[in-house]
Amino acid sequence: MLGSFSSGTGCYIGEHEIITATIRDEPEPIIIVMGCRHLTQNNLLRPFLKWAGGKRQLLPEIRLYYPKRIGCYYEPFLGAGAVLFDLQPKRALVNDVNSELINTYRVIAHDVEALIHDLSHHRNEKAYYYQLRDLDRHEEFQHASDIERASRIIFLNKTCFNGLFRVNSQGHFNVPYGDYKNPKIVDAVVLRAVSKYLNANEIHLSSVDFEEALEDATRGDFVYLDPPYDPVSDTASFTGYNFNGFGRDEQIRLRSVFDNLTRRGCRVLLSNSATDFIKDLYRDYRMEIIGAVRAINSDASGRGKVDEVLVMNFDP
Questions:
Q1: Mean of the pLDDT values across residues 192-217?
Q2: Are 309 and 273 in contact, with CB atoms under 8 Å apart?
Q3: How far apart are CA 132 and CA 129, in angstroms?
Q4: 30-38 vs 73-75, strand pairing mode
Q5: Do 17 and 155 belong together in one domain?
Q6: pLDDT of residue 5
């Protein structure tokens, strides 16, 4: 049985700090390398929203496939940005077709203190929630300021059922109230960390079709694709957040874009559900099957651990 040990830092290699543990009760102390971390990374930087299909729980798996060198980083299905905030590239073009979401990122970048102030006025009350939720059904919503719209999105995400972002066929937010006792509506530390990152680096935000967002990607760039997943059942589309839909025709179009990026010399990593359709669609590429826990599904039998697939066109 191993003796007592203490953790610490052993040495530095470039910009990486090596994390070690030293076993004390052996004849000769044994130093074990536990891992490393990048010294320039901001550990406060993380998603400010909960997102259906978000990648925070899968980051230990996804990190294994980050390229060692990256030109520009592209992410056309940004969502909550878990991979962006984990990788923390200096240059990136990130995109989401959800214009309300991209507006929220822009407000955080350009006016985070005003956003924090506006968030502080919200109330975690059912009637107030539905009043704010239903604003997008009225014409006057078009006259709301960017700050008010961003504040609304964050409030709804923090207080709605399961932190889900979902819209109906008219593009109206339609998730019911979550009835949580003390949701953290104002996370000023995280919002300021996100704002600092977006301003300290060359991060371009857009809200266009995914194919258009990738037009300028070239050799040496890293592209992470995290599209709406191919449903594993008839009820799995409950998690969709884009009223335009993302069916199998779009999945096939995305595969064509994946091929095009490969011809251009980009390194591409894609996440999707491990359905037979997706595995057959990307059969010419390297695949890794990983497990993920999904808590959001209209059918309780669809919750729990499910298989997902990582597809890549390079050797990590």
A1: 98
A2: yes
A3: 5
A4: unpaired
A5: no
A6: 42
Residue 131 lies in a domain: yes
Residue 48 lies in a domain: no
Distance, CA of 155 to CA of 45 (rounded, Å): 19
Per-residue pLDDT reduced to its tens digit, 288-303: 999 876 555 444 444 5
Residues 175 and 152: beta-carbon distance below 8 Å: no
Query: What pLDDT shows up at residue 168?
Result: 81
Hey, what are 208's tokens? 């266009």
Residue 107: domain span: 56-312
Same domain, residue pair 19 and 150: no
CB 155 within 8 A of CB 119: yes
Asked if residue 69 belongs to a domain, the reply is: yes
Counted domains in the chain: 2
108 and 253, same structural domain?
A: yes
Q: Which residues of 230-243 are buried (b: 16+ CB within 10 A; e: fewer)?
A: bbbeeebbbbbbbe
Does 49 fall in a domain?
A: no
What CATH number is associated with residue 211?
Answer: 3.40.50.150
Instruction: Tell me the pLDDT tens digit for each residue of 262-289.
Output: 999 999 999 999 999 999 999 999 999 9
Residues 150, 257 share a domain: yes
The answer to whether residues 28 and 82 belong to one domain is no
Question: Would you tell me the crossing angle of helices 126-133 and 146-159 to the nearest 10 degrees?
Answer: 130
Most confident region among 97-101, 244-248, 255-259 by mean pLDDT: 255-259
Nearest-angstrom CA–CA distance, 149 and 208: 19
Spatial contact of 78 and 94, defined as CB atoms under 8 Å apart:
yes
Q: How far apart are CA 134 and CA 176, in angstroms?
A: 11
